[in-house]
Write a structure and sequence with these properties.
The chain has about 500 residues and is α+β, with helices and mostly antiparallel strands. The protein is built from eleven helices and 16 strands. The strands form three sheets. Strands 1, 2, 3, 4, 5 and 6 form a six-stranded antiparallel β-sheet that branches. A five-stranded antiparallel β-sheet has the order 8-7-11-10-9, sandwiched between helices. The longest helix has about 70 residues, at about 5-75. The model has no long low-confidence stretch (mean pLDDT about 85).
Length: about 500
């Protein structure tokens, strides 16, 4: 059976559990608040990326729609003086209508300038070396092409080129129509976004060329970012996704949400600083934690004082219990002394008489057998005369230990000093045969002690024993009859020459 913990331990456990529960609840609430904050900012970053993608898609689509009309005019009307004059007016009007456009330009198949939207046309301008011109000359695709950012040779501005191919009637390459979008147009829009102090946004070609970003730097425009973690994540996860990425440039960990433009080979990335996302949560969590720690400290202090009072009371009760236990132990010692033979350590005559009455009554109730062995040390008076009473006491002690060892195998058996050198062994639930066997074991064990006895026939101390067993019947027989029968058998053993065991019916062989 498990021992129940003390009230001090239980109180300490309760206080500990209460404090830990408060801390656990606060920690769980804080973690839930953190999770919700991160989820909200993830949605915010995704919405921001969606808005940027829509803005970029709309901006480039407007420029491309202008190109579609211009390509049709050039392919239908040609580039004669009259047609070019009309084209200049159309180009200038389109640029006025679309503030995102820096300019509209037309180049012939050799890259020479044909017409543009500027009031003053450039002289001897040739853009055959530009990436977009090389692309259209090598590809028959009639769709729009988003080129790498370029620096204008006339104004020095950083521009994003959007171009389409012009064909002759036979399908051969006839030139390029170009719309340029000022990078500053995107920079101003990105500057209007609330992305925090350490946030970052960007517009990137699918090939890994940075078109523009915030924080803005002219050196980042046109930079190859294929080795950057955010680009690798975009390539791995697809057109839409969100991931935590640590910037290689400034070491800031950001929540990056990226999205591909619907109609063009570009994607946007909106990155919010993780530290800024969690800043408000940290402040609230610290205040909550400080309050919970204060409350926990109060509960712990009160619990500690309560435990102190309980321990004081427990010590007082323990002292009282110790005094009571000492008294009980003393009483048990006195009782033991009263029921134990002081010389041999066996039960004394008083305990034997009490146990005999008890076991006799039990044998009657249970209809069982009760056996008794009466033992007497042979020629013990002569032993005392020869070796003295001190040696006689030691002899009885040795015999008592031997008898106690052999009769301790069953809990109900009782070995007692009946008087002087006479011993008795009471054996519940045992017949004559079992008692004879045990008596022989005792006799042989004492003989094997080889306690010298010059007055004995064999030269050593021996025993004689008488055995009897009864099956008491209710209303008939008394305990003393068992003693008388066993004593009679003992007398028979003595008369037959000692050092032997006899039963009340027939003596056993020596």
């Amino acid at each position: 059976m498990l021992r129940q913990p003390s009230i001090t331990v239980r109180t300490a456990a309760f206080v500990g559990v209460a404090c830990l529960t408060l801390l656990a609840i606060d920690a769980w609430n804080s973690w839930q608040a953190r999770t919700e904050q991160v989820e909200q900012m993830s949605v915010a970053a995704s919405n921001l990326a969606r808005a940027m993608a829509q803005h970029g898609d709309d901006t480039i689509k407007k420029a491309d729609l202008s190109l579609v009309g211009i390509v049709e005019r050039v392919e239908q009307d040609g580039t004669g003086p009259a047609a070019v004059a009309r084209l200049r007016k159309v180009l200038a009007a389109r640029v006025v209508e679309l503030p995102e456009l820096d300019g509209l330009h037309i180049y012939d198949k050799n890259g020479n300038w044909v017409a543009n939207s500027r009031p003053t046309p450039p002289e001897n301008l040739n853009n055959a070396d530009r990436e977009y011109f090389v692309f259209h000359r090598a590809h028959e695709d009639r769709g729009p092409h988003i080129g790498t950012p370029v620096k204008s040779r006339t104004t020095g501005r950083l521009l994003i080129p959007v171009s389409r191919r012009i064909d002759h009637a036979d399908g051969s390459f006839a030139g390029v129509v170009l719309a340029t979008i000022n990078v500053d147009f995107f920079v101003k829009f990105y500057d209007s976004l609330d992305i925090g102090r350490d946030g970052a946004v960007g517009l990137v070609l699918d090939t890994g060329t940075m078109m523009t970003r915030r924080p803005y730097s002219p050196e980042t425009v046109g930079k190859n970012v294929t080795t950057a973690d955010f680009f690798r994540t975009y390539v791995a996860e697809g057109p839409v996704g969100t991931a935590y990425i640590k910037s290689a440039q400034d070491g800031v960990t950001r929540l990056n949400s990226f999205r591909r433009l619907e109609h063009f080979p570009l994607f946007v990335t909106a990155a919010l600083s993780k530290d800024e996302i969690l800043a408000a949560w940290w402040r609230e969590a610290l205040w909550h934690t400080a309050g919970i720690l204060l409350l926990t400290s109060i509960v712990g202090f009160v619990g500690w004082r309560l435990i102190g009072q309980i321990e004081l009371r427990t010590r007082s009760e323990s002292d009282l219990r110790q005094a009571r236990d000492a008294l009980e132990t003393l009483n048990k010692t006195l009782e033991t002394l009263a029921m134990e033979d002081g010389l041999t350590g066996l039960a004394n005559r008083r305990q034997f008489d009490v146990t005999l009455d008890s076991e006799f009554g039990r044998a009657v109730r249970e209809a069982s057998t009760l056996a008794l062995i009466m033992i007497d040390v042979d020629c013990f008076k002569q032993y005392n005369d020869i070796y003295g009473h001190a040696a006689g006491d030691e002899c009885l002690q040795s015999i008592g230990r031997t008898v106690a060892r052999l009769t301790s195998r069953r809990a109900g058996d009782l070995a007692a000093r009946y008087g002087g050198e006479e011993l008795a062994v009471l054996l519940p639930h045992t017949g004559v045969e079992g008692a004879l066997i045990l008596a022989e074991q005792i006799r042989n064990a004492v003989r094997d002690l080889k306690i010298a006895h010059a007055g004995a026939a064999g030269g050593f101390v021996t025993l004689s024993a008488g055995v009897e067993a009864l099956s008491p019947v209710p209303g008939r027989g008394l305990p003393k009859e068992l003693i008388q029968a066993a004593d009679k058998a003992l007398y028979a053993a003595k008369t037959a020459g000692r050092n032997r065991v006899c039963s009340a019916g027939q003596p056993a062989p020596a």
